[in-house]
Amino acid sequence: MATITFIESDGTAHAIEAKCGWSIMENATKNGVPGIVAECGGSQTCGTCRIYVSAEWQTKMDSPTADEVSIIEFAEDRTPGARLSCQIEMKEHLDGLIVRMPEKQYSM
Ligand code: FES
Fold first, then answer.
1. What is the DSSP letter of 94?
2. Distance 43 CA to ligand 1 centre (A)
3. Distance between CA 1 and CA 19 in Å, rounded?
4. Residue range 12-30: mean pLDDT, rounded
5. Which atom of ligand 1 is nearest to the CA of 48?
6. Which residues, judged by CB distance below 6 Å to any ligand atom, belong to the binding site of ligand 1?
7. Domain range for residue 37?
8. Could you read off the pLDDT of 61-84 as tens digits, one per residue?
9. Residue 108 lies in a domain
């Protein structure tokens, strides 16, 4: 087990026990974290699972694929560190991960 802390735009934090092997999105939705809508269920088509990852944590993750970048750009989200949480697999070395969430998720 590892932990992830999700921080809403108003500063409300949700710390969860995360399951490695699941995506960040799956960990959020299965633990009732508000703000991760995930309309497409993780098929990388809706863009409603956006999170913001700090530069420090980004260095510990795989870079986003071109498809992931295109979905984020389509959502016109220019926030640094914007990622689709369904495309990031939780791994042991990400224990303690802290991510921020947008004020609102925009569906494609
Ligand atoms: S859940 Fe739809 S893009 Fe991530």
1. G
2. 6
3. 6
4. 98
5. 2
6. 25, 38-40, 42, 44-49, 84, 86
7. 2-100
8. 999 999 999 999 887 888 999 999
9. no
